Amino acid sequence: MAKSKSILNKYIASYETLRELLGYLCDGCYQKEQLAELADISARSYEDGLARTRFFLPAEHLITHRACRSNIHAIPGSRYRTAYNALALSYRAHGLTPTAAFYYVTLLQLLAAGTPQRERELLARLVQRTAEHPPALPVDLAPRTLHRYLTRLVSLGVVERLSDRNRYRYQLVPAILADLAPDEEREVSLAIAAYREMALTSVPGYQLAGAASAPLQLRHSAISRILADETVHLIACAIVEGYSVALRYRGESITLRPLRIRTDMRRARSYLVAQPLGASGQPQTYRLDRIRDIALGAPLPAGNSAAAIPSTAPRKIPPLVIAATITEAAGREALIYHITERYPEADISEEQVGGRTILRAAIDTPDPLALIPWLRTIEPPVAIVSPEHAELQTRLLTDAEEALAHYDLYTTTP
Amino acid sequence: MTYTPLLHELHSALFAALVRVIHAIASGERLTREALLARLPLQDLAHTEREEAIVDTLFHFGEQGYAELLVSTTLRLPPTTTERVWLKTMLLDPRADFLLAPELRTRLRDRLDSTLALPAAIWERVQNVGDSIPTATLRTVWQAVTRGRCLYIESRARSGASYAQTIAPVRLEYDMAANRYHIIAYLEAESRAIKISLSRVTSVRLLAEPVPADTAGRFVAFLDSRRRSATIRILPRYNAPDRALTMLASYDRHGTYDAATGEYTLTLDYYDFDESDLIGQIMSLGAAAIVLGPAELRAQVIARLRRRVEALAAPLT
Q1: H helices then E strands: how many in chain A?
Q2: Cβ separation of B9 and A81 shorter than 8 Å?
Q3: CB atoms < 10 A from the CB of A409, how many?
Q4: Confidence check on the interface: ipTM exceeds 0.90, yes or no
């Protein structure tokens, strides 16, 4: 086949090719040059990636606006209209060669008969069929090639290899969702479409239920979470099988013993919790969106499990005590709700001071500074009253004063 | 659980199109080479060499020019190992109990008897405590929204008062951060949608009465009428831009980045009934976030900042 070099092949072999670019497009703020610099790619690679994105995403999912005499592309992130995440379509970008298409299609068709078959039998049937109905382009019918594609189907799990007196037979795995009544099929399809948004990874759910869309509306769910699915899937396999993972993180190549995935739903961010191989001490966290070029490493020694990691006693920190003046019953209830939905064990008390009702909450936290963003959101506003955390009180006050000062500097938009 | 990438040939757009085409031909449809090519995702109409080669390798074209299958059966693609593991995990996840009838769940679980599920300990979710809603309640609401049926609900307000009403549910809402469920229903008589926390529902019953056919359309029109836009500047203080871009990722938005100053200007589309949520997110960014517009939103944020300064400047002892 004559191959044109003038066109871009929009199909790819690794999701890593698209992931970072799609992440920046979800941010929706960058001009071409800025994005290329951030992603450390050439302008040409940027254009190629954008062309791929256009090819796989429906037009309404890649919007363009003009700013600073440049086009800025953005992928809309709202989940209000539908739980369907169009970024799932980017996981359909794998390439397919004519030979691969021929073997996958014909082998799956031949095996659909249900009877387990040997490689030799499959090859003979393919030879016979192509002789009877020669395709327009001849294909290489060789035992080794057939074996390679059969092995690939086995590794994907769609074909089973059965051992029969040192000879192998092949058959399709049972279709789990076949033979369901139409209403059951619909129920399962909707269940998958809903669960994929609540699950660790959503791509397998999209591969199972396709375009089905559930009447589920998600809040605080970023569509970009799906971009990490390939990474999460590899990590999950590594944990289950007891393998290390090798990856690049902030420019460094490291090998880790993966322990678990941590998803902070409040910050819409996911992490790998892992321990560097050869290091002792507590596990570290690695942001999934910053992990690059992840691959399975070597099997970990037996017994070298997470349970074997020595745990250090958490640093004892006095509880953080916050307090607010309550002026109305609604404010009191809102404050208690705000605190207990995050810290149900908080020790809450009330007292009368000089005719005012003061509500106090003592919170046990290993890292009070990490609470700053949350403390800023509490309404009615709270002060920090535990003397051990006076610095936190100062920081919150300085920050609020600076924020107010900014409103004098930055005028409103027209 | 052998690792194979999620991005693979059998789920490529080209293979999916081939499955559809083969199904059509096996079902008796007659397709010429051109008609067949038109059903494949073509990268570039001027350069279709790859797709043509796939078609010519897979199909025999008879004297009349119609495509014939080398193997005259339709193509069935069973779920991969990764998909079976995912499905088994769903069937064992108590959070998903309400999505399937128990009998159907058990039947599917039996079919996946030899498949392992992902251990629950692999995934640590950091979210608020949220609500503990009985599975039966969630199941009834889910049946109503998936089957398009009305619900009779009894609920209890914060004040303690009880309410009973028949509603036309349009969606179930799940808040990933708060771990809470709400029913979203459209009230025809009042031409507006309401949101009812499932934690406040004391009793729920599925009715035979269908949700009116045009309710979904009216709800979307209602959403459109409540759409607002806000412009926020994010200053490069600590990791605020990074936090803001992640936290505000669930809005439709666009913006600009000033490489010289490191400032971002984001325009977010939101619904006015979510304004308090947006204000909370802006407040969490502290001095790094400045609302540029609209003026009402800006005024609300300034008022909250003033109250915060007052509260912090005169600490309670």
Answers
A1: 12, 14
A2: no
A3: 7
A4: yes
